[in-house]
From TrEMBL:
This is Uridylate kinase. The gene is pyrH. It is an enzyme of class 2 (transferase). The keyword Oxidoreductase does not apply. It comes from Aureimonas jatrophae. Its EC number is 2.7.4.22. UMP binds at residues 53, 73, 134-141. Residues 7-215 form the Aspartate/glutamate/uridylate kinase domain. Signal peptide: none annotated. Gene3D superfamilies: Acetylglutamate kinase-like. Homohexamer. Keywords: Allosteric enzyme, ATP-binding, Cytoplasm, Kinase, Nucleotide-binding, Pyrimidine biosynthesis, Transferase. NCBIfam families: pyrH_bact (TIGR02075). It catalyses: UMP + ATP = UDP + ADP. GO terms for cellular component: cytosol.
Length: 237
């Protein structure tokens, strides 16, 4: 089957892993996302993943209560490692070879990130899960996703969200919000559309990487979009 993109970086937010819970990881949801990744790989698409940590911790939570932002961000980055291990577990259970590469060295737990290692693992057919964000405070895992997409030479950055694309306003609170099928990176930035942070969109624009925004909760949607169907907003220049 023909696919639209051969090499894809998938961003999964921590919130996505939370499912209906208020905190943490719903293993059933992690398992389902793992199955979507397996099915997309079966189409011949090379997939790597950047995972967020918001279901466990966000740095601003510390900063907003008078604590040190950098420490808060360290806690957030550690949260992404927990999520990465959960997703690897879900992939391994269904026979998908996956590896976690962390931007922060913790050799007893997982390999450290380097572009060389990431490309080698991907070439060996593994799903590479990037943990630890960019490894720096004051960044987000969306920015990490754009960065790793550029480093991997990805043809597209798939951003799995709670809804089926980009809207002019949050459709959960504004039922009359306009939904877009296509946008340019400039339009996303100029209109201040809250889909990814500015750093992430700017990095994708600079490297001419399309961003495909879709619902991570629609089972099978990842593969449908890869084969030309499904619902998404495509951001490209
Ligand atoms: N974080 C960071 N640097 C990075 C990526 C993440 O400091 O490069 C921290 C930051 O505190 C952030 C938390 O990790 O709030 C979790 O990441 P994020 O909020 O992007 O997760 P998501 O919203 O995707 O669940």
């Amino acid at each position: 089957m023909t696919v639209r993109f051969r090499r894809v970086l998938l961003k999964v937010s921590g919130e996505a892993l939370m499912g209906g819970q208020g905190f943490g990881i719903d293993v059933a949801v992690a398992d389902r996302i793992a199955m979507d990744i397996r099915d997309a790989r079966a189409l011949g698409v090379e997939i790597s993943v950047v995972i967020g940590g918001g279901n466990i911790f966000r740095g601003v939570a510390v900063a907003s209560k008078g604590g040190d932002r950098v420490t808060g961000d360290h806690m957030g980055m550690l949260a992404t490692v927990i999520n990465a291990l959960a997703l690897r577990t879900s992939l391994t259970k269904i026979g998908v070879d996956a590896i976690v590469l962390s931007a922060i060295a913790m050799p007893e737990i997982c390999e450290s990130f380097s572009q060389r290692a990431a490309l080698a693992h991907a070439a060996a057919g593994r799903v590479v899960i990037f943990a630890g964000g960019t490894g720096n405070p004051f960044f987000t895992t969306d920015s990490a996703a754009a960065l790793r997409a550029a480093e991997m030479g990805a043809n597209a950055l798939f951003k799995g969200t709670q809804v089926d694309g980009i809207y002019s306003a949050d459709p959960k609170h504004h039922p009359d919000a306009e939904r877009y099928d296509t946008l340019t990176h400039d339009e996303v930035l100029n209109r201040g559309l809250a889909v990814m942070d500015v750093t992430a969109v700017a990095l994708a624009r600079e490297n001419r990487i399309p961003i495909v925004v879709f619902s991570i909760h629609e089972e099978g949607e990842f593969s449908r979009i890869l084969t030309g169907g499904g619902r998404s907003t495509i951001v490209s220049d």
